[in-house]
Amino acid sequence: MKGWRVTGERSAATIKRPKGPGQRWLIPVQPDRNCSIHFGRLQAHMQLREDLAQIPVAVFGNGWGYWQSLFHRDDHKTIAKFITEHSSFKQRYIDMVKSVMPKHFAAVHCRLGDREAIPLFNCSAFGFGMGLDETWPMMTKNSICMRPVLKPKGKTSKELVPAPEFMSMAQAVAAWELPEEIKTVYIATNRPKDPVVKNVTKVLEARKMQVWTWETISPRLKIGTGAPRDGTVTSIMEQSVAIQADRFLPSFPSSWGSVVLTRRLVAEKPDAEEQHELMVRNLELWGQKTKCNFNYTWNVSD
Length: 302
Prior knowledge:
Low-confidence stretches: 1-16, 132-142
Largest sheet: 4 strands, parallel
Region (Disordered): 1-20
Distance between the termini: 18 Å
Strand order of the largest sheet: 9-8-5-10
CATH architecture of the largest domain: 3-Layer(aba) Sandwich
CATH class of the largest domain: Alpha Beta
Order of helices and strands: EEEHHEHHHEEEHEHEHHEHHE
Number of strands: 11
Mean pLDDT: 78
Number of domains: 3
Number of helices: 11
Radius of gyration: 22 Å
CATH topology of the largest domain: Rossmann fold
Structural class: alpha/beta
Protein backbone atom coordinates (compact mmCIF):
# COMPACT_ATOMS: atom_id res chain seq x y z
CA MET A 1 0.00 0.00 0.00
CA LYS A 2 2.93 2.31 -0.62
CA GLY A 3 1.95 5.73 -1.86
CA TRP A 4 -1.25 6.46 0.01
CA ARG A 5 -2.31 6.97 3.57
CA VAL A 6 -5.05 8.31 5.81
CA THR A 7 -4.28 10.97 8.39
CA GLY A 8 -6.47 12.83 10.85
CA GLU A 9 -7.98 13.11 14.29
CA ARG A 10 -11.01 11.33 15.72
CA SER A 11 -13.39 13.80 14.09
CA ALA A 12 -12.01 13.97 10.56
CA ALA A 13 -9.53 12.40 8.17
CA THR A 14 -7.61 13.63 5.16
CA ILE A 15 -7.59 11.43 2.07
CA LYS A 16 -4.18 11.60 0.41
CA ARG A 17 -4.11 11.18 -3.34
CA PRO A 18 -2.32 8.08 -4.66
CA LYS A 19 1.01 9.00 -6.24
CA GLY A 20 0.67 6.63 -9.18
CA PRO A 21 -2.23 6.11 -11.62
CA GLY A 22 -2.39 2.38 -10.90
CA GLN A 23 -2.74 2.73 -7.14
CA ARG A 24 -6.00 2.40 -5.26
CA TRP A 25 -7.66 4.77 -2.83
CA LEU A 26 -8.15 3.98 0.81
CA ILE A 27 -11.60 4.21 2.32
CA PRO A 28 -10.94 6.94 4.91
CA VAL A 29 -11.94 5.07 8.06
CA GLN A 30 -10.08 3.73 11.06
CA PRO A 31 -11.48 0.76 13.05
CA ASP A 32 -10.52 2.23 16.43
CA ARG A 33 -11.84 5.71 15.62
CA ASN A 34 -14.95 5.45 13.49
CA CYS A 35 -18.30 3.80 14.13
CA SER A 36 -21.69 3.54 12.49
CA ILE A 37 -20.80 5.39 9.28
CA HIS A 38 -23.62 5.64 6.75
CA PHE A 39 -22.17 4.03 3.63
CA GLY A 40 -24.37 6.22 1.44
CA ARG A 41 -22.87 9.38 2.99
CA LEU A 42 -19.36 8.12 2.30
CA GLN A 43 -20.34 7.39 -1.29
CA ALA A 44 -21.97 10.81 -1.68
CA HIS A 45 -18.85 12.45 -0.27
CA MET A 46 -16.64 10.72 -2.84
CA GLN A 47 -18.98 11.66 -5.68
CA LEU A 48 -18.72 15.37 -4.83
CA ARG A 49 -15.34 15.41 -6.52
CA GLU A 50 -15.13 14.39 -10.15
CA ASP A 51 -11.74 12.76 -9.67
CA LEU A 52 -12.99 10.76 -6.67
CA ALA A 53 -16.16 9.72 -8.47
CA GLN A 54 -14.05 8.01 -11.15
CA ILE A 55 -12.18 5.78 -8.68
CA PRO A 56 -12.70 2.16 -9.82
CA VAL A 57 -11.69 0.55 -6.52
CA ALA A 58 -11.50 1.86 -2.97
CA VAL A 59 -10.04 -0.41 -0.30
CA PHE A 60 -10.11 -0.75 3.47
CA GLY A 61 -6.46 -0.28 4.33
CA ASN A 62 -6.27 -1.67 7.86
CA GLY A 63 -5.18 -5.12 8.93
CA TRP A 64 -8.08 -5.54 11.34
CA GLY A 65 -11.54 -4.21 12.04
CA TYR A 66 -15.20 -5.22 11.98
CA TRP A 67 -17.25 -3.68 9.19
CA GLN A 68 -20.28 -4.32 11.41
CA SER A 69 -18.84 -1.65 13.73
CA LEU A 70 -17.54 0.73 11.08
CA PHE A 71 -20.79 1.06 9.14
CA HIS A 72 -24.33 1.86 10.22
CA ARG A 73 -26.63 -1.07 10.91
CA ASP A 74 -29.05 0.13 8.19
CA ASP A 75 -26.38 -0.77 5.63
CA HIS A 76 -25.41 -4.15 7.07
CA LYS A 77 -27.57 -6.43 4.95
CA THR A 78 -26.50 -4.66 1.77
CA ILE A 79 -22.82 -4.89 2.70
CA ALA A 80 -23.18 -8.53 3.76
CA LYS A 81 -24.84 -9.42 0.46
CA PHE A 82 -22.11 -7.63 -1.50
CA ILE A 83 -19.35 -9.44 0.41
CA THR A 84 -21.01 -12.82 -0.08
CA GLU A 85 -21.54 -12.28 -3.80
CA HIS A 86 -18.05 -11.01 -4.56
CA SER A 87 -15.97 -13.12 -2.16
CA SER A 88 -17.14 -16.70 -2.35
CA PHE A 89 -15.99 -20.13 -1.25
CA LYS A 90 -14.97 -22.53 -4.00
CA GLN A 91 -17.92 -24.74 -4.83
CA ARG A 92 -15.88 -27.87 -4.20
CA TYR A 93 -15.51 -26.97 -0.51
CA ILE A 94 -19.26 -26.50 -0.22
CA ASP A 95 -19.91 -29.79 -2.00
CA MET A 96 -17.41 -31.63 0.20
CA VAL A 97 -19.22 -30.53 3.33
CA LYS A 98 -22.57 -31.63 1.90
CA SER A 99 -21.09 -35.03 1.05
CA VAL A 100 -19.92 -35.82 4.59
CA MET A 101 -22.33 -34.00 6.93
CA PRO A 102 -25.83 -35.27 7.79
CA LYS A 103 -28.89 -33.54 6.38
CA HIS A 104 -29.51 -31.73 9.67
CA PHE A 105 -26.73 -30.66 12.04
CA ALA A 106 -25.55 -27.82 14.24
CA ALA A 107 -22.10 -26.30 14.75
CA VAL A 108 -20.24 -24.72 17.67
CA HIS A 109 -17.16 -22.51 17.33
CA CYS A 110 -14.57 -22.62 20.12
CA ARG A 111 -11.92 -19.97 19.43
CA LEU A 112 -9.10 -20.69 21.89
CA GLY A 113 -5.57 -19.60 22.64
CA ASP A 114 -5.74 -15.86 22.10
CA ARG A 115 -9.46 -15.98 22.92
CA GLU A 116 -11.51 -17.67 25.64
CA ALA A 117 -14.38 -19.11 23.58
CA ILE A 118 -16.89 -16.72 25.17
CA PRO A 119 -20.27 -17.63 23.63
CA LEU A 120 -22.20 -15.17 21.50
CA PHE A 121 -25.45 -16.12 23.14
CA ASN A 122 -28.64 -14.52 24.42
CA CYS A 123 -27.92 -15.40 28.03
CA SER A 124 -30.02 -12.83 29.90
CA ALA A 125 -32.46 -15.53 31.02
CA PHE A 126 -29.63 -17.22 32.91
CA GLY A 127 -28.52 -14.25 34.97
CA PHE A 128 -25.80 -13.12 32.59
CA GLY A 129 -25.90 -9.99 30.49
CA MET A 130 -24.13 -7.54 28.25
CA GLY A 131 -23.71 -4.05 29.60
CA LEU A 132 -21.59 -0.96 30.01
CA ASP A 133 -21.66 -0.23 33.72
CA GLU A 134 -19.18 2.19 35.25
CA THR A 135 -19.47 0.22 38.49
CA TRP A 136 -17.85 -2.70 36.75
CA PRO A 137 -15.40 -1.08 34.29
CA MET A 138 -13.26 -4.17 33.97
CA MET A 139 -16.22 -6.02 32.48
CA THR A 140 -16.29 -4.06 29.25
CA LYS A 141 -13.28 -5.79 27.70
CA ASN A 142 -15.43 -8.81 26.82
CA SER A 143 -19.00 -7.73 27.47
CA ILE A 144 -20.87 -10.79 26.22
CA CYS A 145 -22.52 -13.16 28.71
CA MET A 146 -21.06 -11.73 31.90
CA ARG A 147 -22.25 -10.95 35.39
CA PRO A 148 -20.61 -9.10 38.27
CA VAL A 149 -19.53 -11.10 41.28
CA LEU A 150 -17.50 -10.37 44.39
CA LYS A 151 -14.36 -12.44 44.86
CA PRO A 152 -11.55 -12.42 47.45
CA LYS A 153 -8.80 -9.97 46.59
CA GLY A 154 -6.17 -12.63 47.20
CA LYS A 155 -5.85 -16.26 48.23
CA THR A 156 -5.69 -15.37 51.94
CA SER A 157 -7.57 -12.08 51.85
CA LYS A 158 -11.05 -11.63 53.30
CA GLU A 159 -11.57 -8.43 51.32
CA LEU A 160 -14.01 -8.85 48.45
CA VAL A 161 -13.49 -6.99 45.19
CA PRO A 162 -15.65 -6.80 42.03
CA ALA A 163 -14.76 -9.25 39.27
CA PRO A 164 -16.44 -10.50 36.10
CA GLU A 165 -17.80 -14.01 35.74
CA PHE A 166 -18.27 -15.26 32.19
CA MET A 167 -20.82 -17.75 30.99
CA SER A 168 -18.82 -20.71 29.69
CA MET A 169 -19.34 -22.24 26.30
CA ALA A 170 -20.39 -25.47 28.03
CA GLN A 171 -23.11 -23.58 29.95
CA ALA A 172 -24.34 -22.00 26.71
CA VAL A 173 -24.40 -25.37 24.95
CA ALA A 174 -26.42 -26.86 27.82
CA ALA A 175 -29.05 -24.11 27.42
CA TRP A 176 -28.93 -24.09 23.60
CA GLU A 177 -32.30 -24.86 22.03
CA LEU A 178 -32.02 -27.17 19.03
CA PRO A 179 -34.71 -28.62 16.76
CA GLU A 180 -35.55 -32.28 17.34
CA GLU A 181 -34.18 -33.32 13.94
CA ILE A 182 -30.65 -32.26 14.92
CA LYS A 183 -28.72 -35.19 16.34
CA THR A 184 -25.18 -34.17 15.31
CA VAL A 185 -23.14 -31.17 16.45
CA TYR A 186 -19.83 -30.25 14.85
CA ILE A 187 -17.22 -28.44 17.00
CA ALA A 188 -15.02 -26.11 14.95
CA THR A 189 -11.90 -25.27 16.92
CA ASN A 190 -8.19 -24.61 16.63
CA ARG A 191 -7.49 -26.60 19.84
CA PRO A 192 -9.47 -29.86 19.89
CA LYS A 193 -7.75 -31.14 23.06
CA ASP A 194 -8.42 -28.01 25.12
CA PRO A 195 -10.44 -28.51 28.35
CA VAL A 196 -13.10 -26.12 26.98
CA VAL A 197 -13.73 -28.46 24.02
CA LYS A 198 -13.78 -31.49 26.31
CA ASN A 199 -16.37 -29.85 28.57
CA VAL A 200 -18.54 -28.89 25.58
CA THR A 201 -18.28 -32.46 24.29
CA LYS A 202 -19.42 -33.87 27.64
CA VAL A 203 -22.47 -31.60 27.69
CA LEU A 204 -23.44 -32.51 24.12
CA GLU A 205 -23.00 -36.23 24.75
CA ALA A 206 -25.18 -35.89 27.85
CA ARG A 207 -27.81 -34.44 25.52
CA LYS A 208 -27.50 -37.61 23.36
CA MET A 209 -25.81 -35.72 20.53
CA GLN A 210 -23.18 -37.13 18.21
CA VAL A 211 -20.15 -34.88 18.45
CA TRP A 212 -18.05 -34.43 15.32
CA THR A 213 -14.77 -32.59 14.80
CA TRP A 214 -12.27 -32.22 11.97
CA GLU A 215 -10.87 -35.62 12.95
CA THR A 216 -14.31 -37.13 12.28
CA ILE A 217 -14.75 -35.83 8.75
CA SER A 218 -11.21 -35.34 7.41
CA PRO A 219 -10.61 -39.03 6.52
CA ARG A 220 -13.70 -38.86 4.28
CA LEU A 221 -12.63 -35.68 2.48
CA LYS A 222 -10.48 -35.90 -0.64
CA ILE A 223 -8.27 -32.89 0.03
CA GLY A 224 -4.85 -34.52 0.04
CA THR A 225 -2.62 -35.13 3.04
CA GLY A 226 -0.12 -33.15 5.04
CA ALA A 227 -2.31 -30.16 5.93
CA PRO A 228 -1.77 -29.17 9.59
CA ARG A 229 -4.69 -29.45 11.99
CA ASP A 230 -4.93 -25.67 12.29
CA GLY A 231 -3.99 -24.93 8.70
CA THR A 232 -5.80 -22.87 6.08
CA VAL A 233 -7.59 -25.81 4.45
CA THR A 234 -8.98 -26.98 7.78
CA SER A 235 -10.11 -23.46 8.66
CA ILE A 236 -11.89 -22.97 5.33
CA MET A 237 -13.60 -26.33 5.55
CA GLU A 238 -14.77 -25.67 9.12
CA GLN A 239 -16.13 -22.28 8.09
CA SER A 240 -18.04 -24.00 5.29
CA VAL A 241 -19.46 -26.46 7.85
CA ALA A 242 -20.53 -23.63 10.16
CA ILE A 243 -22.12 -21.64 7.34
CA GLN A 244 -24.19 -24.61 6.17
CA ALA A 245 -25.25 -25.73 9.67
CA ASP A 246 -28.93 -25.56 10.61
CA ARG A 247 -27.94 -23.82 13.86
CA PHE A 248 -24.68 -22.18 14.89
CA LEU A 249 -23.28 -21.14 18.28
CA PRO A 250 -20.37 -18.70 17.77
CA SER A 251 -17.67 -17.52 20.14
CA PHE A 252 -16.83 -13.83 20.12
CA PRO A 253 -14.80 -11.77 19.53
CA SER A 254 -13.58 -13.63 16.46
CA SER A 255 -13.11 -12.42 12.89
CA TRP A 256 -13.41 -16.08 11.80
CA GLY A 257 -16.85 -16.23 13.35
CA SER A 258 -17.89 -12.85 11.95
CA VAL A 259 -17.27 -14.19 8.43
CA VAL A 260 -19.55 -17.12 9.17
CA LEU A 261 -22.24 -14.86 10.66
CA THR A 262 -22.16 -12.58 7.59
CA ARG A 263 -22.80 -15.46 5.22
CA ARG A 264 -25.45 -17.02 7.45
CA LEU A 265 -27.21 -13.63 7.55
CA VAL A 266 -27.37 -13.53 3.75
CA ALA A 267 -28.49 -17.18 3.65
CA GLU A 268 -31.32 -16.24 6.08
CA LYS A 269 -30.49 -18.96 8.59
CA PRO A 270 -33.04 -19.07 11.45
CA ASP A 271 -30.62 -17.82 14.13
CA ALA A 272 -28.65 -15.36 11.98
CA GLU A 273 -30.61 -12.16 12.67
CA GLU A 274 -30.39 -12.53 16.45
CA GLN A 275 -26.69 -13.38 16.40
CA HIS A 276 -25.86 -10.49 14.09
CA GLU A 277 -27.71 -8.16 16.47
CA LEU A 278 -25.80 -9.55 19.48
CA MET A 279 -22.50 -8.99 17.68
CA VAL A 280 -23.41 -5.43 16.67
CA ARG A 281 -24.55 -4.57 20.20
CA ASN A 282 -21.26 -5.84 21.60
CA LEU A 283 -19.27 -3.81 19.08
CA GLU A 284 -21.31 -0.71 19.86
CA LEU A 285 -20.50 -1.08 23.55
CA TRP A 286 -16.83 -1.47 22.66
CA GLY A 287 -17.10 1.70 20.57
CA GLN A 288 -18.60 3.62 23.47
CA LYS A 289 -15.83 2.44 25.77
CA THR A 290 -13.10 3.51 23.30
CA LYS A 291 -14.92 6.79 22.57
CA CYS A 292 -15.35 5.84 18.94
CA ASN A 293 -16.57 8.74 16.80
CA PHE A 294 -20.12 8.30 15.49
CA ASN A 295 -20.15 11.59 13.52
CA TYR A 296 -17.36 11.26 11.01
CA THR A 297 -16.44 13.84 8.34
CA TRP A 298 -13.97 13.74 5.48
CA ASN A 299 -11.58 16.15 3.84
CA VAL A 300 -9.76 15.75 0.56
CA SER A 301 -6.36 17.24 -0.17
CA ASP A 302 -3.72 17.06 -2.88
